[in-house]
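It would be a great kindness if you could assist me with a short task in structural biology. I am sending you one protein, given as its amino acid sequence and as whole-number tokens for its backbone shapes. I would ask you to consider whether the tokens describe a fold that such a sequence might reasonably adopt. The full record is reproduced below for your convenience.
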Amino acid sequence: MKDIILKYTKEDPNNTIPTYVIFFSDGGVYETEKISNLLIECSGTPIFWQFVGLGNADYGALQKLDDLRGRVVDNADFFALDDIDSVTDAELYDRLLNEFPGWLKQVRAKGILRS
């Protein structure tokens, strides 16, 4: 996460293209406080984080990241994909892009993204 944030905020600060990151996890997420702080710190940048849970695991940490307070805009979403074998491509894309359009409106309205 730090490398992605560095790339799109320091190395390429004039980037006008929104960055959409998909993070797949089987629920073994730790260091929730560090991840939470990174999400809060980069919430004023044009980076959106989509967390996807796989494997019928405990996704508590990922769900907490989705509802994290203290951000400039809500820059993350989470959903479980435990039914991957029965999900159509169209439904998968609907889930992946569930919050992204609303996030785009928010970052444009706040002047975070100027395109």
Notes: The chain has a mean pLDDT of 90. Residues 63 and 78 are 6 Å apart (CA to CA).
